[in-house]
Fold:
Amino acid sequence: MAGPGLRLMAGMGLAGVLVLGTLAWLQFDPDAWLPIERIEVTGNPQHADVAAVQELARAHASGFVGVELERLRTALEAQPWVDTVRLRRQWPDTLVVEIREPVPVAQWGDDHLVDRHGRLFGPVALDDWEGLPALAGTDGRQVVLMHRYLEVSARLADAGLEVTGLQEGARHDWSIHLADGVRVLMGRDADLSRLGQLVRAVPAIRDYRDAPVERIDLRYPHGLAVAWADAADDGAGDAR
Structure:
């Protein structure tokens, strides 16, 4: 049977082993043994800068074990043309970055787009997006104007008028832009029921004179005013 001295020595030896093991573990760097060697971007991105995504991912990917996926996801989703990101480790040395790009639903100003969530992103060249509604206003108003555009388009379709965009000023005065170049001035009143006056008046406006209309003003409490493009020629370009 072991004596007290032997048991003490055995206990001290075990404690030493534990201490040495702990020190060795503290000095062990798993990322040095298991680095991220490859950044694989999937999702078939068409507009996102894949090289910039890979560079950002590599800067955050300290190693296969130490990569902080949530922090990296937040950084990647702040990049242009990145809507959502899914990240996964692929043994033994690969980080897979799956990108979903935003779906543009409208132009915004001179160089931005509005995505399906109502968020702005850009700057982008708008030449490739001319088929989208052209909205302009103060940042933060894009959702309001997108909803208004949809409602205005539905109301004016009955008169055969195609709406291409809306523009809102800093004081919330706004106007409607039609496909034929006509501007409809609405003032600061968001009541769309007044568009009924325009729908009813369109046949009379078209019959009044054979000239292109430049502007229709709905800011009057009763009725509207029309300005023709050749108003300066004969002084008869405004009718109410």
